[in-house]
Amino acid sequence: MKPKVLVYMRVDERVIETLKKDFEVTCFQNHEYLGDPAFDSALKEADGIIGLALKVTKELLDAAPNLKIVCNVSVGYDNLDLDEISKRNILATNTPEVLNDTTADAIFGLLIATARRIPELDHVVKSGGWNISLQPDQYGVDVHHKTLGIIGMGSIGSAIAKRAHFGFDMNILYHNRSRNKKAEQAYQATYCELNELLERSDFVCLMVPATKETANLMGREQFQRMKKTAIFINGSRGKNVDEQALYEALKTGNIHAAGIDVFKEEPTPKDNPLLKLKNIVTLPHIGSSTTECEYNMSKLAAENLKDGLNGKMPPSLLN
Ligand code: DGY
After folding, report:
1. Which residue of 97, 141, 269, 306 is surrounded by the most CB atoms within 10 Å?
2. What sequence ranges are listed for the domain D-isomer specific 2-hydroxyacid dehydrogenase NAD-binding (predicted)?
3. How far is the CA of 74 from the centre of ligand 1 (A)?
């Protein structure tokens, strides 16, 4: 009998076809299925799970007695209760590296879109509001030659630094758990404490994973430390930012603007007050969402799954 695999959201169809050769596959691809009896019964039988952002909690694990491996189609794994998973000798994997450049492109794009007010001015043109020359209160701010502070200089943070250094002659500050000598040498990035980074940067880009330590890392005090002319970019996880504090900072002009790819709750509710502000550019968590990158992440997750279920060491094992 073939091992049973539960496919959750956002696994590339071509990859699903390859999985079908080795596994009995049940797909739940398009919306959340928690509480659906068909999902519960697939979970009960599953040897492996592959997908995006399924919350793997103690309760879910209790309902999956045969589970041997959980394969995230993402680099972030804050959806996994890793302690509980490891306690049960279940393997957990993610998809690092394959998304570095794609995510850096998106986050740098968000930074430029926010600085140059691209979505707002696109709307002016499309709504027929381009009657006279642009007014000074519609001008953006420069990106090139400014100071970019990157909080979290991992592989994606480094890919952002590369773009900033080589493409935009930016001066780079960074804060990280440990020094990143490669980024210091290759992109002339300077390590500094968080407060100093916040006070000196024209752009603050948050790229840390979501952990207990980073929850609400950016709160009222941190936004107050930023320059009034500074722009805040969140390319990490919504949990890392106190959204109320961000709202106040934007509303009162304590910071100039923000570009946000991630929210505390996703999809974010329509009445999230942040969405009413003019000086914020938002995206629906699309850092890694290109056709090519989604395929590469699915492919790596499937390799992890196959190796794990065949008793081999998966390429990106987390535990
Ligand atoms: C990741 O890979 O963690 C991206 O943010 C998609 O969730």
Report:
1. 306
2. 108-287
3. 4
